[in-house]
Backbone:
């Protein structure tokens, strides 16, 4: 039967130190390296392995160095409500796990490479070239990609289930009798670490899903407006272009609430009644969505849950999970006053 004395001899420490380490004595000042060595030896010779595994995992969590790598600048991250919620979820779950976020990283490849060198795990928030991330942090089993714009199958990733969200929005409008449905979306970019400030154009999830729904429902009406950013100004200008078309849609799916607010402003300016003449549905459920006129029907994106899930995946990896996992977070339809049955259907009734 394994004893504390055997562990002490193999670890080259006193029996008192072994006892205090195994009992999680908070007053003990010995190094984390020594504690890890004692736990490893104790497990190896069979000294209460289940209890020790739990204690060892707690030690790993408390000593693990975790970093956040963002594509956005600090100002962009602080003003974007979606990414603010993602970061909040990460920070709250790290606190619950007893994890410390040691570094928040932005910059070019050389700067990032220097910052991540000492880290045990990395959360990559936003769309950054995967190959470049692996070049600066060659630990694929210790990375979680959060809200990456393109599908990732070889590595851990978590993002919104955009496909299901758009399908739900489209079906909702279709069941209200809307056939001529427009789409307003923003551009998707994948950012480079090697060439700071440069990016390539990607295919945005919501746009791709909307096109798939048009094909599924065999819709001939084609009204797509893509803007460079995701701002209210972008949504405003996109809606003006839609209203200048020869055939106006009866409904519009807008890929973010910020753009939907701008689209509503354009409709009010042109005297188009919402929802009587056009129904509008947004995405995110920002705080303002419930206070515009009319209150905005939208898909609530549980961005905080996105961050929480990312931390959970990273901890599983650090604790030994081998297979990569991809997680999609569902959205919730929030029905408000900006959508109603299509005018032709209402008149027929």
Residues:
């Amino acid at each position: 039967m394994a004893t504390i004395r055997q562990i002490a001899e193999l670890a080259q420490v006193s029996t008192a130190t072994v006892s205090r380490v195994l009992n999680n004595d908070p007053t003990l000042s010995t190094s984390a390296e020594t504690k890890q060595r004692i736990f490893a030896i104790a497990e190896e010779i069979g000294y209460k392995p289940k209890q020790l595994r739990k204690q060892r995992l707690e030690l790993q969590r408390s000593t693990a160095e975790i970093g956040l790598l963002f594509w956005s600048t600090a100002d962009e991250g602080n003003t974007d409500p979606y990414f603010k919620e993602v970061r909040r979820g990460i920070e709250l779950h790290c606190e619950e796990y007893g994890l410390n976020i040691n570094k928040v990283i932005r910059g070019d490849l050389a700067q990032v490479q220097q910052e991540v060198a000492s880290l045990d795990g990395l959360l990559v928030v936003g769309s950054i070239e995967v190959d470049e991330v692996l070049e600066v942090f060659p630990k694929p089993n210790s990375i979680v990609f959060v809200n990456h714009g393109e599908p990732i199958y070889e590595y851990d990733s978590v993002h919104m289930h955009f496909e299901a969200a758009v399908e739900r929005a489209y079906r909702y409008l279709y069941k209200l009798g809307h056939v001529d449905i427009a789409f307003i979306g923003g551009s998707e970019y994948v950012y480079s670490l090697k060439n700071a400030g440069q990016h390539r154009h990607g295919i945005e999830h919501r746009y791709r899903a909307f096109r798939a729904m048009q094909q599924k429902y065999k819709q001939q009406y084609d009204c797509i407006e893509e803007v460079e950013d995701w701002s209210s100004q972008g949504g405003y200008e996109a809606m003006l272009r839609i209203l200048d078309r020869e055939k106006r849609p009866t409904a519009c799916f807008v890929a973010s609430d910020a753009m939907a607010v701008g689209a509503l402003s354009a409709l009010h300016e042109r005297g188009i009644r919402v929802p009587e003449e056009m129904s509008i549905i947004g995405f995110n459920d920002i705080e303002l969505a419930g206070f515009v006129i009319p209150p905005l029907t939208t898909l609530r994106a549980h961005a905080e849950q996105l961050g929480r899930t990312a931390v959970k995946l990273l901890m599983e990896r650090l604790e030994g999970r081998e297979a990569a996992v991809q997680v999609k977070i569902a959205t919730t339809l929030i029905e408000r006053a900006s959508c109603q049955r299509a005018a032709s259907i209402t008149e027929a009734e």
Summary: The longest strand covers residues 65-70. DSSP finds 14 helices and 14 strands in the chain. The chain has a mean pLDDT of 89. The domain at 65-160+304-331 is CATH 3.40.50.2300 (Rossmann fold).
